[in-house]
Amino acid sequence: MSIKEDLILVANEASTELARKVADRLEIPFSEMLRRKFADGEGYHAFPRSISGKHLIIIGASHTDYSYQELLDLIQGGRYWNAASINVIIPYLGYSTMERAKPYSHEIPKGITRTRQIFRARPDFVAFVDLHSEAVLHAHAGEVSTLHVWTDSLAVEKIQAAGLSDFVLVSPDYGFSKRVARLASMLDCPHTAADKDRYDTDKTIVGQISSVVQGRTAIVCDDMIRTGGSIIQTAERCLDAGATDVVVMATHLVMAGDSRQRFEDSPILKVIGSDTYPGRKSDDLLEVYSVAPLLAEILEKHLQL
Q1: Cβ contacts of residue 157 below 8 Å, gap of 6+?
Q2: CB 78 within 8 Å of CB 112
Q3: What are phi and psi of 27, to 5 degrees?
Q4: Backbone angles phi, psi at 166, to 5 degrees
Q5: Phi, psi angle pair for 109, to nearest 5°
Q6: pLDDT at position 201, please?
Q7: CA-only gyration radius of the chain, Å
Q8: Nearest Cα residue to 18 out of 226, 250, 274, 302
């Protein structure tokens, strides 16, 4: 019997569309969870069939409190109903920028505390996509197999297919410059980084940028777009330094608040990103690619399909 016959792939509600794409790539059925709401607002979940002795795959972003709790429930439900193994992929990890608490701040580093709760639900394997910090990978005592999935290959393919020529990759800060340097090496193109200082929770200021962008298309790369403030500032500094055009690439398209309008009002030509953050689709501003092929490949390797 093929191990594929012992696989059951489910998702939290937010990541259902992405999970269906992964199931198609793996050539296995997608199993829709049974859900309903009680009158008092409590949620009901049930697996559509027996998972006892089966290898359970759960795909779930934790971008909202509801999605996070639903992900925990699915993992714990898999353990309760005796799945042979519980394999989790988290396309977007909520609170991923809060991986440590500043001294004497008394703040709760939810990136760590919430990931620790996921691990304590006892999955066997958890993969994260393009983490803001790898610190969360170590929020367990060694009993969980973890993997950081980089989307470099998909990003390179997307840039190569974009029809751009004479471009330079730009990091909005030095913290992300190693990742940008790696992408630049794969693309055989130059790269640089902007000077960025954070002076409040969601406020940054971007200083000067290298003249290497002069006469070229600048591709500003980051792991996520939350409010877009620093990325738009970086784009403006690129144009000040002589760039001809600016394109943005980021894995996680959070696009919080009025960031969409801010991008539309900016000189940025387009924003390229993935479908890790639920609900993002291609339109006149966004060019969205799917991480489903990469996630299917990870699962094939891990489960030895």
Answers
A1: none
A2: no
A3: 60, 45
A4: 50, 60
A5: -80, 80
A6: 47
A7: 20
A8: 274
In order, the DSSP letters of 107-119 are ---HHHHHHHHHH
For residue 66, give the amino acid letter: Y
Beta bridge partners of 10: 58
Contact predicate 56/76, CB 8 Å: no
How confident is the model at residue 199, as a pLDDT?
42
pTM of the model: 0.93
Hey, what domains does the chain have and what are their CATH numbers? 3-149+293-303 (3.40.50.2020), 152-274 (3.40.50.2020)
Residue type, 295: L
Residues of the chain scoring pLDDT < 50: 199-201
> Strand order in 125-129's β-sheet?
7-11, 55-59, 85-90, 125-129, 145-149
Q: What residue has token string 């959070």?
A: 254
Q: Which two tokens stand for residue 32?
A: 């829709």
